[in-house]
Amino acid sequence: MKIPEKLTKPYNAVETEDRIYKIWQDGNYFLPDSNKDIQEEGKVFSIVLPPPNVTGTLHMGHASVVTIEDIMVRYNRMNGAKTLWIPGTDHAAIATQSKVEGLIYKKEGLRRHDLGREELLRRVNEFAQNSHDTIVDQVKKIGASIDWSREAYTLDETRNFAVRTAFKKMYDDGLIYRGYRVINWDPKGQTTVSDEEVLHQETKGKFYTFKYSPDFPISIATTRPETKIGDTAVAVHPTGKYKEYIGKEYDLVFAGVNLHIKIIGDDSVDETLGTGAVGVTPAHSQIDWEMSRRHDLPIIPVINDIAKMAVSEDRFSDGDKLNLNGKKTTEAREIIVAWLKEQNLLEKEEEIEINLSTAERTGGTIEPLPKLQWFIAVNKKFTLEKSNITGIKSGTETTLKELMLASVKNKQIEIIPDRFEKIYYNWIENLRDWCISRQIWFGHQIPIWYRGEEIYCGIKAPEGSGWEQDPDTLDTWFSSGLWSFSTLGWPNETEDFKTFHPLSVMETAYDIIFFWVARMILMTTYLLGDIPFRTIYLHGLVKDSQGRKMSKSLGNVIDPLKMTAKYGTDAVRISLIIGTGPGNDTKLSEDKIRGYKHFANKLWNIARFVITNSQDVTLANKPEITEADQKNLTEFTETIKDVTEDIEKFRFYLAGEKLYHYTWHTFADIIIEEAKVNLANSDEKVKLSSQYSLIFILSSLLKLLHPFIPFVTEEIWGIIKEDKEPLLIVSKWPKIND
Questions:
Q1: Are 259 and 220 in contact (CB under 8 A)?
Q2: What is the pTM assigned to this prediction?
Q3: Cβ distance 357 to 200 under 8 Å?
């Protein structure tokens, strides 16, 4: 074996990685049949990339996703499975539109209605395309062996057809309905947002205890006095200290507004909190809205879409008005508190910690408002025509919530780590109907058309004139909820769908188990009567070395692309894996990445020594092995066994750690050092045994390391492999009896 000139030089990651990736991609090594020579019949592995939002560039969290999934994919490909990994991006409706709107306003001072729907969408789509191109390049830089020929986008034509098909079926089954109820309203973004897209920030606030009027028998407490002019009841515990007042009604004037207050008994009231009584504002609290439905209370909105007071004129008393209308809610609060003090109705004013609800994407303060919106009913019974869900037979009446619970409880879907099962169950059991309509322009427009009193739901627009489509778009999680099977061609029964569904694994961050994972389970169990995937692997968040969230304001962001350029992709990848178990956050620093660059260099130097000292030795001609070398080979077999088992059981951090220590401390520090003596031995049998053992361990070690550090291993493999041997990416995984 002639020693290549490049092996005499230090390893150059920058020069190597783009060249190697191009060889893989141009040679179609990312396709499911690229490993057909080693495929085992019936063995399949499939996974889809959680689609990054087309709102910017990738961060270390994305790099972690790509690395973990690429380890699974490369291992299964080498282990004889027909392997598919589908890439894609998410249009991320609110996030993308709000970002583009912000850029336009900053540069041109224009709002969405100044531009019009068509022009805004043109600009948003242009931004999304540019962002998509950047993301694709970055995913490639992380070394993803992903099938780019099957790339999907949540807003492309195939996914749009899937979305409309799903919507129509749910509508026809009565699971999608239009209703008037309290939702989370983002006054800044001028749209509804889901519960999961509301951030709760701890801040200082005030807790006010007061009476509506001097003659009212019960005191109440609130952090938002401005909403109390919309109160229609006071709720007390049915058997508590105020039970004697239940059923009584009072007409009074509060802050210049006429109120009719009914005392109701409700089991949800906790007498240990506040005064033990609750002012009920059905129009501006989801909890109070539910209470109003139980007690048939009127709904009186007093705050409008732009978070300003809007009290109906006929509700003001004939006396002095406080000029509340048109005021911001915070201004109205001050005015009403001042009025309470003047009337000697304010009993107590305390400073407390409160949770301020804000919209994740725009930062706007959330206002609970009653709105006419589209919802998915999660508790409504329907007939599941076809079922592969254990415990739920075909033709059974069930609910979406029951399907979501059953598929995990019956262990058809395994969650790793299993501690997240309880969190999943708790969230599902408390799940409310899902508000799926959004008042934005970017996204899947709701496939409902109106003509006078007529309503039409269809995959295509209705024929005839006079039809107008609903202007709202769907919650981005509706299309994302179809991702596990729409990427396989559903609703068409494609070969990909037949071969690769259900997916083997869904890998994602634990913080979107509710946003995304639960909704994929909802959509798949309902639409297909099957599970979407067999295993959910949840990884943690990537934080800085002090365990803090990475943010620009803290100046602690580590850019994965800068790190790959500086230290090599292999170093970034393995630094994200070693030391971090499933579901646990990763502490990452540049020092850690730099340390693993030394590992890549160490492996390169090991290879240089072995190749230099094992020329003309091939694995096809096994010599007589000495007892000492056989001991090393036997121990190495145990390493193969351990690493394989760790990967099979999703313990990637342990597999990586064992390989690191074996390479550096066993192979380099012990075996190679002992081999130096044997290689100088005059006994050819001893020398040949040592040479063979070195090249055998190195060859197998490259295969074991390849899923973790694919570039340096493929480069070394290209030097040591026989001419007829395949690239490392499609080489056979070492077996224990090899």
A1: no
A2: 0.92
A3: yes
